[in-house]
Amino acid sequence: MLDKPKNRTIATLLAVCGIFTPIVGLHKFYLGQPIWGVVYLLLSWTPIPHIASAIEAVWYLLQDSTDFQSNFDPRPLSFNLVEFTNNRPSVSITADTLRQLEQLRQEGLVSEYEFEQKRRQWLDKMS
């Protein structure tokens, strides 16, 4: 379940349930953040996690689906740009891929962390 894409509607509904029920933090478990889910459960006797759940429900609703996926989808970016021979891409293919990746980062479609992670993967494939 951790590697499946997360549904914004389900996350929002679970957050809303946390506002009105004593069981809070289910949306955190669903989104792959179990430590925060436990914190919410431990603080369930206070209003803090209920208020936080309300804020997060609104935040999930205000995000578009691509923003939501970039924040909560644990799957790495997949670049199916090239067939590899001997599991090593050519230098020109790697350079083109890194340029495309940089463009995605500049457009805000890839976070800095995702950019660095993918860049290192491609450079490691070269060696």
Which features characterize this protein?
transmembrane helix, 127 residues, mainly alpha, transmembrane, 2 domains, single chain
Question: How would you summarize this macromolecular structure in one to three sentences?
Answer:
64% of the residues lie in helices and 0% in strands. The protein is built from 7 helices and no strands.
% residues in beta strands: under 5%
> Please, how many domains?
2
Shape: elongated
Note the gap between the termini: 33 Å
Low-confidence stretches: 77-85
Kindly report the average pLDDT value. 80
Order of helices and strands: HHHHHHH
Helix/strand class:
mainly alpha
Task: Record the SSE blueprint.
Elements lengths: L7 H13 L5 H5 L3 H9 L5 H15 L2 H8 L18 H16 L5 H15 L1
Helix pairs in contact: 1-4, 6-7
InterPro entries: TM2
Pfam families: TM2
Keywords: Membrane, Transmembrane, Transmembrane helix
Explain this structure to me?
The structure is a single chain. The protein is mainly alpha-helical and 127 residues long. It has 2 domains: 8-72, no CATH class; 76-127, no CATH class. It is 64% helix and 0% strand. Helix 1 runs antiparallel to helix 4. The radius of gyration is 19 Å and the shape is elongated. The protein starts with 7 loop residues before the first helix and ends with a helix. This is TM2 domain-containing protein. It is a multi-pass membrane protein. The chain crosses the membrane at residues 35-62.
